[in-house]
Amino acid sequence: MSNLELLQQEFSQQKNNLEQESAIFKDLQAEQTKTKKILEALEGDLSSVIAKTKDGLIDASGLTVDEYVDLKNQTTGLKARIEYYKALLEEIEIKIYKPAEKVRIEVGKLQEIRKQICSVKAENSLTEFVNKNSELLTEIYTNFKFSGKFQVGNSNNTTIEEQILNHIKAKFADNINYIADIENGLSIQNPVASFEFRSPMQNHVLSFDKSPKGFERLINEVSQ
User: Fold this and answer.
1) What pTM value is reported for the model?
2) Residue among 163, 126, 158, 127 at smallest CA distance from 144
3) Rg of the chain (C-alpha set)
């Protein structure tokens, strides 16, 4: 098995590892998105209830005990649900960080393997191209050399050989698609590309933060 084949095999295995870690991260990310939407809806409902009282849409002069209890229950219930989902969001944010770091590590490993694959493939393709076209390249160079198109003592103070090679390189450059993407087999999906990772300093500060988070914080607040 060639070095390229070994690298391609390693790339495939590493890609499977990335997909497994990505699945865990994406599940938590979906739960996080769902929780944020629920929280947003609850906060909207609470704002609507509060707005009704402020805008005088509820007749305070004829307020019955049942109406008051119902209004109180609405606001208290919504506030309790908002507190719960905020705590849930904290729990998810804690849980999602390690899977996100694992995905970032797996993506990095995969990118390093791809670099090696691309380097080997580029060198192999270049060698194959030169070997197949060496006679044609020699013919092109020789014809340019005796064409009189290139002269010694030009404004750039370069030799005839340098001028010919620069001209040939320019022709190659004009026919390269510089925005072509990597082949599908070597593409890498990075689900944590927009994830906000903590800096080393933030991690250091967080390591000293022993305050309760998530549901632990919520229970502590209830018991106080």
Assistant:
1) 0.78
2) 163
3) 33
Q: In 3-state terms, the chain is what percent helix, strand and coil (to 5)? A: 75, 0, 25
Q: Looking at residues 152-156, what average pLDDT do you find?
A: 69
Q: How far apart are alpha carbons 145 and 167 in whole angstroms?
A: 12
Q: Do residues 219 and 99 touch, judged by C-beta distance below 8 A?
A: no
Q: At what angle do helices 160-174 and 65-145 cross, to 10 degrees?
A: 140
Pair 93, 195: CB distance under 8 Å = no
Q: Within 13 A of 113's CA, how many CA atoms are on the CB side?
A: 24
- Token pair listed for 171: 């022709």
pLDDT digit string (tens) for 126-137?
A: 999 999 999 999
Q: How far apart are the first and last CA of the chain?
A: 67
Cβ atoms 190, 108 nearer than 8 A:
no
Which amino acid belongs to residue 191?
P
The two three-digit tokens of residue 77, written as one number: 């219930």
| Tokens of residue 174, six digits | 């004009």
| Amino acid, single-letter form, for residue 64 | T
Q: Name the CA dihedral angle for 109, 113, 115, 117, rounded to a multiple of 10 degrees.
A: -170
- Which residues contact residue 220 at a Cβ distance below 8 angstroms, ignoring those fewer than 6 apart? 212
Structure tokens at 190: 């990075």
Strand runs (DSSP E) across the chain, as ranges? Answer: none
